[in-house]
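Quick look at the format.
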Amino acid sequence: MTSAYALSPQDRSSFDRNGFVKLRQVLDPDQLDLFAPVITDSVIDLNTQHLPLAERDTYGKAFLQVSNLWQHNDRVADFVRSPDLARLAAELLGVASVRLYHDQALYKEPGGGITPWHADQYYWPLSSDRCVTVWVPLQDTPADMGPLAFAAGSHRFEVGRDLPISDESEAELQRLLAEQDFPLDDAPYQLGDVSYHLGWTFHRAGPNSSSRPRRVMTVIYMDAEMRITEPVNEHQQTDIRTWMPGAAPGDPAATELNPVLYPPAG
């Protein structure tokens, strides 16, 4: 996956101010159309969620979630290792180099429910906020498909950071964020658009009321100098075992599963 997109000063200031930025036509739709079926085939092969939608909890209804596809498919690895997507992550974070934390495919099925309000970094045992997710839809994503929605400026709001994604986080954060009057950005995406958001930026997504799956691929990047912190919940303990195997609190977050993606090797 390649892109010549150049960040503008407005892109950078918007990211710093809001904790996210939506970038229009970063990727060539024709390239995305080549990667989409490969990613989808990997999701189908690796998916372990087989319950009917009606029998799942809120999290299970939100999406099919498959992680580290890059380890299982070389073509998906080409996507995940894109030096151009990683370059934009490094420039937005203001760091010299970024490495991979992990990837996730998030497929919201037709009839799939909401993705509750949450902040990703609740799950991450990382020593700073210099970590960012790129959200790449693999089709046009209008309002009825559940595009990602952000509370602008919420990356500086420290209340609610102890809430895992759940019905409780949806209700409690909806109240807390409304009290602070954070603007909501839930604009649709066109194929080729992407967004980048910080780990502490609160976000959610509506249901997919369309007849088509909402197919999204994400890559999570972190400052190449990131270190692992002492986990504060069981999810962070799992993350260390899963995404940084063999490492321990205090170590660099630099295992074989966390290659440097920008600058590219060689």
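Next, a different chain entirely:
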Amino acid sequence: MSNNAPPPQVYRSKITAYVVICWLIAALGGLMFGYDIGISGGVTSMDDFLRKFFPSVYQRKLHAKENNYCKYDDQLLQLFTSSLYLAALVASFGASKACSVLGRRPTIGLASLFFILAAIISGVAPNKAILIIGRILFGIGVGFGNESVPLFLSEVAPVQHRGAVNVLFQLFITIGVLAANLVNYGVSSIHPHGWRIALGLAGVPALFLFIGSFVIPETPSSLIERGKESEGKKSLQKIRGVDNVESEFEEIKLACEIANQVKFPLKKLFKRSSMPPLIIGVVIQVFQQFTGINAIMFYAPVLFQTVGFKNDASLLSAVITGIVNVVSTFVSIFVVDRLGRRKLLLQASVQMLICMIAVGAILQVHLTTTGSLDKGLAFVVVVLVCLFVMSFAWSWGPMGWLIPSEIFPIETRTAGYACAVSTNMLCTFIIAQAFLSMLCHMRAFIFFFFAAWILVMGLFVFFLLPETKGVPIDAMTDQVWKKHPVWKKFMGNSDRTCYEMT
């Protein structure tokens, strides 16, 4: 089912050095998130870390021949990774309120502060309880950052470049993952505190983001929504690089007037007319996680050890997948505003499905509970994982953040995006907490499990996802939802300005 977007409504703007710097500074929020995604798997495979906090897992690892798939199956070890995302789930709703009341820029600053504190606590953690506290603080930082940064990028980007600008968040996530893999590889030989260095370095991108939060502007939408129209207009002129911004300013102003009539955004969010963006925003986040990508990115070193790589070789293989992740994300930056969101998602669904089925088939046939793959097949597994990561990096990775950040009207934008982010964190928590146990009990069939999800994802995109390329962020209701053959049935015939005030 095709659903082509109307031609872009282009407002006057030019790309200045200042606005590019603002995009890059804000995208550092993705670097924080990506670094933590990448660092967890490497740290949990380090012997010094396991000996100190998870000695039973370390002993099991020494006797891996007992069961190749189950040597890392430990709920507390998984909680080390997953606790962050449970905290981020809860924090995303506080971040939504902060975005509405304080603005996008202060919320970004708060995210960086939580991350800095978490990095310090994690790096010096003397016991398991303090270590988990550090992870929870990381989670609060992730919740605040993942709520505020994509909203900021979508609201400051010119409509014709919104996709590419928002993809910067995912690009910096991939750079963070790669940086974490390189750090893990570099500190794995530093005994006994290499893992402390790896965790503590998470504070570096957070520090840069905190400093940068004093450089970037507040978004025009946030300022105007909070009654600061003159400041909002100045901000719009600054980020557009031109003085004549009247048409775009009036569009934002009208959207904010409508938003201010809605006293209870969360209540409005669950009305029938708000269901299309809410369903899309939430389902996209579920699908992004159930591609299996985070199972691979969290535990890439563990996964490669399972198929027969030694510790250093597995970390190096994770670095390779990290490089593929970064390079492939650039594809999305260059083509997302040309090809649109749907084509990238559909193409990637096919590629990812093939890769998952192939990996599962190889492991099912050739990897026993006590053996390992021969070098040739192990290499094939790495190549297939890289092809999987490649397709995710230009599709479901960036689109998972871009689409929910651009589809909600301003009156429900922060609340709607908070639901999307919290769904992402819940699903990430489930995958992070369950993957090693699933690997133990399902073995190679875990890859077929994710393949089934990918098939469902592709069908959902084909039939239900509208194209949002080139549509002004405050015109989505009229230009997208009211024209889609399925979702228009939810919108009714009433004009957008007619809302219940309660």
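The mean pLDDT is 86.

See the schema section for token definitions.
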